[in-house]
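Hello again, I could really use a second opinion on something today. Take your time with it, there's no hurry, and the full record follows here:

___
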Amino acid sequence: MASFSSYLSLLLLLTLTLTLTLATAEEEGKSTTATASSEKRKTYIFRVDHRSKPSIFPTHSHWYASPAFAGGGDPLPLLHVYDTVFNGFSASLHPDRAAELARHPAVLAVFEDRLRRLHTTRSPQFLGLRTQVGLWSNSDYGSDVIVGVLDTGVWPERRSFSDRNLGPVPSRWRGACETGPGFPASLCNRKLVGARSFSKGHDSNAAIGGGVNGTIEFRSPRDADGHGTHTASTAAGRHAFRASMAGYAAGVAKGVAPKARVAVYKVCWKGAGCFDSDILAGFDHAVADGVDVISVSIGGGDGIAAPYYLDPIAVGSYGAVSKGVFVSSSAGNDGPTALSVTNLAPWLTTVGAGTIDRTFPAEVVLGDGRRLAGVSIYSGKPLAAGVMLPLVYPGKSGGLSASLCMENSLDPKLVQGKIVICDRGSSPRVAKGVVVKEAGGAGMILANGISNGEGLVGDAHVLPACAVGSDEADALKAYISSAANPTATIAFKGTVVGVKPAPVVASFSGRGPNGLSPEILKPDLIAPGVNILAAWTDAVGPTGLDSDGRKTEFNILSGTSMACPHVSGAAALLKSAHPGWSPAAIRSAMMTTASLVDNRQQPVTDESTGGAATPLEFGAGHLNLDLAMDPGLVYDLGDQDYVAFLCALGYAPNAIQVITHAPASCPAKRPAAENLNYPSISVVFNGMAGGAQSKTVMRTVTNVGAKAKAVYKAKVEVVGKGLTVSVRPGKLEFTTGVKKRSFAVMVTATGKGNGADGGVGYGYLTWSDGTHEVRSPIVVSRFQPL
């Protein structure tokens, strides 16, 4: 796959360039020059060696604020001080002042604050959970676990956050219920145990899109956006009967871990996104407060994967994981492009999105009698029954902006009283409907292009509207071109369950390979992320648009943002059932038991192609929580394993210390990154080399099954030609005294390409004892070296 090879090489070159340019403080001190003092202030995050604090200062905050740290100049205007998952501070400074501080002997690294974006109640059952069975069989499962959600806050009055019949808050909880506009302390309870907000980073970055808009936001943990309320209730919402979004998805809404406690950390703000300095403060407080799980449906949006030591989400999450806190993150919504997955660090559990067996069908009925399938959750007054309306495509004569139904692009004379076809892209889907409505249109058909394929999600449109896939869109436009007087209507079909096939990998879900360290397969797995019903804010309507005055207790959203909290809730249940498991063991249990088949018992498919999905799309597969309860074997990891991995990437010891908080040393012989004891196996070969290439990868498994004496046998399945995989030993025996066993996986690729695309091949290694199936995906890729 030539395009894959060249793109990966380019991305690695960009990463190397960024590594050399944005180096750690030691390197910056040698190369950075002061800029003009008249330059505007920027927000910087400083990683400090906390051991360097002079004993005269009682706290690190006192030290950072002192003239001694500032080099005799004015005291630093500190924004946040970090001392749990990260040691250091953030401050708004002129670039020349930041460059001076970078040369401070205690400063390990400096990086500029970046803007992040959000990755926007049948789903628990679709994970394999059933009432009174498995992880829901014990009514108290999860009640001793606290899930921290870094997002846009919470609408605490929702039934999803009721503490009815919940016992006392775990005594180890050290958090707070911060008050502010619209948020008295009384809103916290035994369910919503804590709430904090962080806005100093936003306020200091007003010049580049930050700054909290008090006319549309609450300077408190209250959620003005809706995203945070939705993700928190998806992870751990209580049972809410008679739930629906205007009649759609009616039933009982509940989170994956309905008895778990919730603590919200508002780090993202309506209309302003999420800044690294605030996200890092959220991580720092969440771990200090005593959460067990952190859910982060946030990711980068600049297309560049920074080295892990320059990525605050990677650094903050490492600090959490090293203290035993499981961290799940969203894979991003930039699929189906290759290398689009975000949140790449191996200590993060990165979650892609799949469909569930529920949809909201709508039909476009054409004047010639054809019916085109679509999706919609429009809940207003329908179009008149049996009345066909004129159909128009503004892009036929109005240019690109009109085809996209951009603001002020439609001629009312052209669209008045008609159904308008709008191409998807460049503006929010629901915003296109507002444009059509304001121009006098009677309805809208949202048409996918080739990049979106057949991927459809339901939207709560402000006028009668539905979305159609690219095939139906082509048919629709062909009809307009051929018919003298094209007409159509839209019929809404409500809610349909039991849809097959499901799950399907959502077309928008971020895809591998991992553009930063391809030896680690990302995403790790997929979970429900399409048309998910969960609690919503009263501050905005279901579209999230300021012009939408409708109110709804629940809303239906899609995105890897919705998939991530499913895994967060799953982790809470597993943590409750197995309190001694590490974050890596919990992730391993999910990955090695994930499902590769849909509800037809056929291989899971990819929505963007219609063909079988691969580990590059779904990682280890679709989360199957009941099986994860008893995985048999796990691939465990600790701090030293991650340090060895960072050494394998060629990071200098001071760069590693930025992540790990402790001095690090690397062996004279660089370790192999593929040998990180990960539940998946990713082997990278030289794409330019001819002939066969081989590598041996090591792994260690731990027996966590009920039987101390167990024998597991290996089975290897390879998909495609030109790839051979063998395992030694082929049998692992465990006893009361031997709970860990290691093995080697030998991978050989012949020729210059493997797999259908010429660049990637894959397979699976499964260890079985007759009861457990412990499966790991194997991905083999080739790329051109730098």
